[in-house]
Structures are given as C-alpha cells and as structure tokens.
Amino acid sequence: MSTTTGTDQAEREAFYARIDPQNMAPLWTRLKSLVPAAPTPIGVPHQWRYADVRPFVLESASHISAEEAERRVLILENPAMRGSSQITSSLYAGIQLIMPGEVAPAHRHTQSALRLVLEGNGAYTAVDGEKTIMQPGDFVITPSWTWHHHGHEAGSEKGPMVWLDGLDIPMLAHFNSTFREDHHEAEAEITRPTGDSLARYGSGLLPLNYRAQALNSPIFNYPYVRTREALAQLAHAGAPDAHQGYVMRYVNPVDGGWAMPTMATTIRLLPKGFSTQTYRSSDSAIFVALEGSTTLSVAGQTFALAPKDVAVVPGWMPYTLNAPEESVLFCFSDRVAQEKLGFFREARG
Ligand code: GTQ
Q1: Domains, the chain, ranges and CATH?
Q2: What are the φ/ψ torsions at residue 73 (nearest 5 degrees)?
Q3: Interval 38-49: pLDDT, tens
C-alpha cells in the first residue's frame, strides 16, 4: 500500500457530500476526463444519403409552407447527439427546401450561415440588400446580423430548390450570445444589383482604397462554375496533396483570410483512382459530395459518398478518402475559429 496523505475513500465521499450543497465538487475525480490527453468527441461519424433524405425533404412542402415555417429545414442531427440540433459539438447542419413562388421571410441573427446548393434553379437568397441567384454547387454566405430572406421565382417548371445550411448555432449558444430579429417585411429591401459583390470583390479586383469593413468576405456567392474551373486547372498542374487531394479554401479576397470568421470552407478534387494518406485534425468536418464517388473511411466504418450525400467526421478521428472516379467534395468545419483561438491541430499519417 502506498502511503497516502489524507482520508480514506469513505471519508472522501462524505466530504464530497458535504461540499455538494455549496455547489462545489472535487476536480481530482474529474480531471482526466475534463482535461483529456486528446479530444473525446461526443458525435460519431455518419452519412446522410441524398437518395434517402430527398423524399422527406420534398414531402415537407406538403406539411408546411416556407412562410409558415420561416425556414423549411430538416435538421441533420448527429446520431450520438439526438435532440441537440447539432451535427458536431460546434456546428449545425440542415437541408432547406424552397418551392417556386415561395418566400422564406427576412430575419437576421448573430449566427452566421452558409449555403451549399444541392439541387434546383431559379431561387435566390437576398443578403444585406443584394440578391444572388443560386445554382447547384454554389457556396453562399450569410454573415452574422445581416438581413436575409430566400425566394424562388414563380413557375412550377423551375422545380424545388434544395440546399444545405451550415450554421454556427452551437458555438453561439456556448457563448450565450444568440440574438435574432424579424424584419417588418417578408422581403428586406434590395439596394444593390444582383452580381454586384462578385463584380466588386470577386474578380481579382477591389475598389481603390477599399478597406475591410467586416470579419466576413464581401462576396456573398462563390459560383460553382468558377470554383470548378479552378479545380480543373489545378488538377493539370502538379501533384495533389497526399493527405487531402487538390484542396482549396474559400477566401476573403480583402484580407486573405477565410470567407467567414467561425466556419472554414474548402473544396477539393480527388483525381480518379486517388487515395489519401491518413489525416486527422482537431476540427470536426462536414463533407458534402458534389461530383463522382468517394469512399470515406473513418473509425472502422466505410461510407460511399454519392453526389449530394453529406457525411460528418468528428474531430481528431483519423480518416482517408478514396476516389474510384474523379470526385469533388465541399467541406465545412470550425477550423477557422480554432485557428483564431490558437488550438487547431492536425496530424498526417
Ligand atoms: O436560412 O436563416 O437551417 O435562420 C436554420 C436557421 C437556416 C436561415 C437554418 C436559420 C436559417
């Protein structure tokens, strides 16, 4: 028996019971789980197949209008975090549907949102006075506290419009800094022409003497046609990164930083037949398959990702990606927040 200073277990328990009414507890019984050697994510890896999800998303239109719902969204909830509205411990994801002729009314909130368009044509999102028409694969941002509404030009031939929403809801809940406001009109005023921000800030140009005015990129929509063209060029010049493929991040052209302050977004191309080396990082990642087919292997599980499928990889779990055919994957995570706060980590191999 080692010499112990202090009292025996029964006396310790009695002590814990006596401090309990003071709303106090001993650290030493919890230290190893409170400050673990490595991340212990609550979430689990999971895949949502678009083929499974889509019928329910479309059916939601028969149950509620976009106007009544305010946002007609089916939340993607991590199976290990049911009831939390979380896909990871810091992020929210959902699939939003808007039908021709509908408007999802204007509001604003301190949470930032990103959209990744999955399906459809003709719908727009209006952010801070500018409409942007959305096409499949487009990455659209809604910065914190900007008025935004979504609409879909009438005409049933246009069909449903579906996109993935990513928001930092759990992050702001963690800081208890959640505010929201409804606009007095369903549609907030449009003050700038469509395409204005892309022309001003997203064309390799900036207005002379322009200074960053916010933490967010001034570009609202990063159109997929441009992104895809860049990826195609990249794939012809140089080798892909062994752990990540041809991966690029969406950038704020004013300061070179990420497009958004809380959510990091990337796009990657995996050439046909390419397999990544094992990679992991402290940010939990949500992947959205856009093209091809990708096999994601994580924690002994294998997920075959078809276009529009969504998959989550909790932080610090080693994973590989394998592409039997040329594939494109979008990804968002809390990496940018972790980097800014100084605790982002990654490991190769
Ligand atoms: O489009 O503003 O999926 O406020 C969740 C909350 C979408 C939105 C969501 C929101 C929105």
Answers
A1: 46-348 (2.60.120.10)
A2: -135, 140
A3: 999 899 999 999
